[in-house]
Design brief:
By secondary structure, this protein is mainly β. It is built from no helices and 17 strands.
Length: about 200
Amino acid sequence: TYLWAPSTGLSCTTCASPTASPSVTTTYTVTATDGNGCIKRGNITVTVFSTPGPITGPSTVCPGATITLSNSVSGGVWTGSPTTVATIGAFSGIVTGVSPGVFNVTYTVGGSCVVTRTVTVNTAPPPIVPSTPHVCVGSTVTLTNTVTGGTWADPGYTAFATVGSSSGVVTGVFAGSAIVTYTAPGGCFVSVTVTVDPLPSA
């Protein structure tokens, strides 16, 4: 005969192999008695893991860039596929974009409690044309990109040049260099260094 205790969460207390469904981690003791009255006891612990909540964090990333995903339940393991689109740190939740596509993310707690979501790796814009732009002080040069609809910006901390946010027209202000960035509609960006040449001496 068998006797299991405590009875909480068990499908039966006198069968050899009851089904255990406790709401919290529980250690059960089983007492087995054979036909000769010999008794043997044993213990088994059923560990109950918290169900992970929704995965939170950005839903898009650019190739070569990273985002961090998180979950309200700690201690789980992150996995993802395909790795040709992105990779993810098993314990950090850091996703690194590799190439455009959809990346399937899984967060697993306790080996069986699972939650999933997707991350889209956007397409990075191609290089800016021209690739090594020069402009004289007081003159302009127009930068272009084959991906349209984006926004041009200078770093803001330099007075060497300015750029039209929609036109890509760079105006040289002082001799030096300025980094100009073009951000495509999907949020990915590319940059180029514009050299501002001084005016020739009179």
